[in-house]
Amino acid sequence: MRREKVKSSGIWRWPLLRQVRYGTRGTGTEVMSSKTRELRARIEKTEVSRSICPYCGVGCGQLIYHKNGKVIQIEGDPESPISQGTLCPKGAASRQLLQHEGRITKVKYRPPFAKQWQDLTLYEAMDMIADRVWESRKRTFIERDSNDLYLNHTTGIAHLGGATLDNEENYLIRKLFGAGLGMVAISNQARI
Q: What is the pTM of this model?
């Protein structure tokens, strides 16, 4: 088959006629319209960064396509030994974590018996949580049991970790909450 530069003027602007003229199966550029030939991938001329999906403990690799500080597309990383380019539906839609118009970006707090949420700064929220944890620990801390044996624990507070935490973070959580605060109810969502 002789390939010529396809002209899209006159009668030859119709892809079917070009297909008949060149005797092809209709899979080459000769059957493209001029509009189709001008199309470009939306991720063309974008930067690509590698990342890991934030949803579960599997650790699927992601390719993050971004342009001018904005995420354009997130796809599975074919070079990832874990996922080999595949993502579950949540991982494929993880761009919404950053760009969904309904995403809440401020700390919300609803006081007891209140009907409306109010905004707090991150520091106010962290101080509030720390105060409540410490107060619950003081109120429920058991130093010794009935046989005068040391317990040094509290069952008034529990911790449930997320599967996206790595081993180092889980180690520190176990040390801080177990040895430091005396919590005995420490678990992880990945185990459940």
A: 0.56
